[in-house]
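User: I'll paste a sequence; please echo it back and then give the predicted structure.

Assistant: Echoing your sequence first, then the prediction.
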Amino acid sequence: MFENLFSLDGRVALVTGGSRGIGKMIAAGYLAHGASKVYITSRKAEQCNAAADELSKLGTCISIPQDLSTLDGCRALTDEINAREEKLDVLVNNAGAAWGADFEEFPESGWDKVMNINLKSPFFLTQMLHPTLKAAASDARPAKIINISSIDGIRLNPGETYSYHASKAALIYLTRRLAARLIRDRIVVTGIAPGPFASEMNRAARDFPDELAKITPLGRIGVDEDMAGAAIYLAAKAGDFVVGDTIAVDGGHAYASLPGGEA
């Protein structure tokens, strides 16, 4: 009855932004838990290819470099996946961007870049890959879409990252709306809101982990297993009945921090 709850045996997954940081953590976790094939994509081909070579020590990992900030890029990736696979079991919309600037000087370019990659692209890539995901879905084994948001979409960050805050909050609500539509096709849509993980995007966690650990209720920043564990749970049978929710994986920042940073 409780066998294979966290197994991804035979599953084919696509992780956008999978060459580094959170995306790479998720891809590694999927391979370690039996995924038959994990595709990763990122804008920089050399970095994407190198990551796939490294991850291939765990299982079959294939690099498809692509810039997903445009619809043409989303179409190109969809065409490449469909040329290789008849069905797709798991889509992780992780590719993202951030921009910080003073309110008085915040530029249109910083708005458009972040909104395009963080919000527009997940929607249209999901739309384009819908038939491929639907082909994998069944009552017994739904297909999965996992949108990677941020705790900055749940609570405020002191940084002036206006478009990032807005895009991640919107992605959480988009996750709910997509879940309501796609569940009829037995495609389960959920999300993860990461907190402090050392990555290129989260430079505070990367460069000042000890300082950030002190203001994290759990007393440390996130490690690879924390992110992989949540993503495996949602992609596997264990997470089949979780629909539309976005789980904060953040050591307590979003829901267990008292005013003034007291634990």
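The chain has one domain: 12-206+222-252. The radius of gyration is 18 Å.
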